[in-house]
Write a structure and sequence with these properties.
15% strand, 7-stranded parallel beta sheet, elongated, alpha/beta, 5-stranded mixed beta sheet
């Protein structure tokens, strides 16, 4: 096999978390070359909110031209991992490539992170990556061009990457530390071990469940990660290892400079949400999270009473249609210059707003300073960006909280 033809025909690729999202996109990209794909994921039955199972993914892979082996695998379970690796070797004769994609996320601070969630993230992200790598390495050693790719970020000790979600950062950095150590450990065996991470938010079913359908407007398609990983896998494993690579940088090095088609909304390609952990994104992310106001001053209105104006505008735009589409009650704990408690009732009648706590329990409680509140409702701060950078705290139903984005969009021209 000439590995410089940029083809993966006949190669056997073990991918964790390949039933949907980035993992499935990588699988489909390789399948077009005629690769053998082991779909190692937990989803054997349809999730009530997330599309796709290992079996539907297998059908798509085979339709794309590859061969598929769906395996029920929880990467926390050593027996399941070892059985899947054994099945892969029995069916395809070996393993050439491992993609550690399975991951769990909780963007919560220390006090808000329960230990069950902490253990989930670390057991899937760090321990799972280590375990699956350990099980595959003996077979990778027999491959003429072996690769391990972890979907994990560059390592950086800047406190900013830890302060809002220290448990998640530890778990993802654990995957990256596997790259750092294993690359050096396995260099003499010719096994390349690298990390690939997106520069911008990637739109998957999981992120849509986390932040709503509007997340597509500031995200790229998973295909950008698939194309980047594909380009890496087509390289001679002895020439690239121990690298922490960014998707769009890989593609630019391959001569792909126009990334417009990767944007879910091409018209918004220059206003994408920067992803975590990328040093070149730090300044733009800090703009979202900064305590300094990022709002252009309006000459027609005074600087005081901004929160009051927001609620007046919301009240003027309430309707039974908005209530039927939203079905939630929100409480806002506003801090800073215009501190106070407010509510929006989008569950009953024609809707209502007011000062103080709602008469019925809130479905979601949002806490932020008054400057962030005004910026969000005037379109200068994306709610998801505010949440992911710690500027917005949400308790209760996160999905219902993110439904507010449509209301914010409708108010842009009215404020």
């Amino acid at each position: 096999m000439d590995y410089f033809t940029r083809k993966l025909a006949g190669r056997t690729i073990f991918i964790t978390g390949a039933s949907r999202g980035i993992g499935k996109s990588i699988a489909l990209k390789a399948a077009k070359d005629g690769a053998n794909i082991i779909i190692a994921a937990k989803t054997a039955e349809q999730h009530p909110k997330l599309p796709g199972t290992i079996y539907t993914a297998a059908s798509e892979i085979e339709a794309a031209g590859g061969k598929a082996l769906p395996c029920i695998v929880d990467v926390r379970d050593e027996t399941q991992v070892l059985n899947a690796v054994k099945s892969a070797v029995e069916k395809f004769g070996g393993i050439d490539i491992l993609v550690n994609n399975a991951s769990a996320i909780s963007l919560t601070g220390t006090v808000a992170t329960d230990m069950k969630r902490y253990d989930l993230m670390n057991n899937i992200n760090t321990r799972g990556t280590f375990l699956v790598s350990k099980a595959c390495i003996p077979y990778l050693m027999k491959s003429p061009n072996p690769h391990i790719v972890n979907i994990s970020p560059p390592l950086s000790m800047k406190p900013f990457w830890f302060k809002n979600h220290v448990a998640y950062t530890i778990a993802k950095y654990g995957m990256s530390m596997c790259v750092l150590g294993m690359a050096e450990e396995l260099k003499s065996n010719g096994i390349a071990v690298n990390a690939v991470w997106p520069k911008t938010a990637i739109h998957t079913a999981a992120i849509e469940m986390l932040s709503g359908a509007e997340s597509s407007n500031f995200s790229r398609k998973p295909e950008i990660m698939a194309d980047a990983v594909y380009a890496l896998l087509c390289k001679d494993s002895k020439t690239v290892t121990g690298q922490f690579l960014i998707d769009e940088n890989i593609l630019r090095d391959e001569g792909i400079v126009d990334l417009t088609d990767y944007a879910c909304n091409p018209e918004n390609k220059d206003n994408l949400m920067p992803d975590f952990f990328v040093e070149e994104n730090l300044e733009s992310i800090q703009e979202y999270a900064s305590d300094k106001p990022q709002i252009a001053k309006k000459t027609s209105t005074s600087e005081s009473g901004k929160v009051e104006r927001i609620f007046s505008a919301i009240n003027a735009n309430l309707s039974s249609d908005l209530v039927s589409k939203t079905g939630a009650i929100y409480q806002f704990n506003v801090k800073g210059d215009e501190a106070g408690v407010w509510f929006i009732d989008l569950k009953n009648g024609q809707g209502a707003t007011g000062k103080g706590e709602p008469s019925q329990p809130a479905d979601a409680t949002l806490t932020m300073d008054s400057q962030s509140f005004f910026a969000m409702f005037t379109g200068k701060l994306k709610p998801t960006a505010a949440f992911m950078t710690g500027k917005l705290k949400i308790s209760g139903n996160l999905q219902k909280a993110m439904k507010l984005e449509k209301l914010m969009t409708s108010l842009k021209s009215k404020l």
